[in-house]
Amino acid sequence: MKDSFGRSIDYMRISITDRCNLRCRYCMPDGVECLARREILTLEEIEAVAICAARLGISRIKVTGGEPLVRRDCCQLVKMLKSIPGIEKVTITTNGVLLDRCLAPLLEAGIDGINISLDTLDPFLYKKITGFDCLGRVMETMELAAGQPVPVKINAVSIDFSSMDESGEPAAVSGSTGWKQMVDLTGRYPIDVRFIEMMPIGYGKQFKTMNHKDLLEEMYREYPGLEEDHRQHGYGPAVYYRIPGALGSVGLISAIHGKFCNDCNRIRLTSQGYLKTCLCYEDGTDLRAILREGMDMPEGEGHYRWPLKDCPDDEMLQKCLSYAMRQAIEHKPAAHCFERPGQITESHNMISIGG
């Protein structure tokens, strides 16, 4: 469907957990108080929302977290989403730590693409950023995934971590050499490496992002043959470039210095069922309240065991979800205000919102 500004909304990011097995400095460095599992949507509830979303025109879904692979039924969910009429693509974003044991089940479930969040190839810096010594494991799995018949992308936040001090706080300065190591991955593997400007949400407010205009100038100086790559790489806002002879491409997602709100095609579902239409604002609608209306809380936490009151395709349930989702999408803001921090109303950390 279209929002009030005529933008076609066809992409939904679904967070399935607020838990993570890393402690990245800009996301949840000291951990967070995770929600009780009964507060998180069940597979059947996510399926019900996805069925409604597909009927409204959503055709592509990104599964995120937290770290989605810490949820044991993640691969089962991918299979469920893939079976919904109208859903054309289901992809996932992961930090890659658990991908070695989940790659085969994901492929079997029909996953259409894998994004790996990875900010550095330096083992020392990786441990400083994430709190864990897992880079070797992630790189081995990345190489394995790159040999599979699905697109693989690396997501790196645009912060210069090379100057990170002992307190763990990085400085954002142009001229970092870390990005070149990341770019050079495209010469060895058929993957896309995307740099993402840090958005001032949650712990991200403490860090200044690298301006991608400056980064692109550095890339042109380092790779004189760099050229724009106009091929279709996905359905997000990345602008792609290619080094002649490279197996992969480089993408820039410039939310701050290359505002792309006019073409925004996405909505977000948090792990607790809150539908957000813009990352910058708290505005949205509580779909979990619709899914669980009139129901008693089950005893104990269980493991995502809250029973769905109706089947996911129940006509009345779908009507209620559809009305709520339509209302939210019709009120989707024209643009974010990240360049005006005082006007940002979103107060949650990214781990609670979903990546």
TrEMBL record:
Coiled coil: none annotated. CDD domains: Radical_SAM, Twitch_MoaA. The keyword Hydrolase does not apply. Pfam families: Mob_synth_C, Radical_SAM. GO terms for molecular function: 4 iron, 4 sulfur cluster binding; cyclic pyranopterin monophosphate synthase activity; GTP 3',8'-cyclase activity; GTP binding; metal ion binding. GO terms for biological process: Mo-molybdopterin cofactor biosynthetic process. Gene3D superfamilies: Aldolase class I (3.20.20.70). Its cofactor is [4Fe-4S] cluster. Its EC number is 4.1.99.22. It catalyses: GTP + AH2 + S-adenosyl-L-methionine = (8S)-3',8-cyclo-7,8-dihydroguanosine 5'-triphosphate + 5'-deoxyadenosine + L-methionine + A + H(+). This is GTP 3',8-cyclase. It comes from [Clostridium] citroniae WAL-19142.
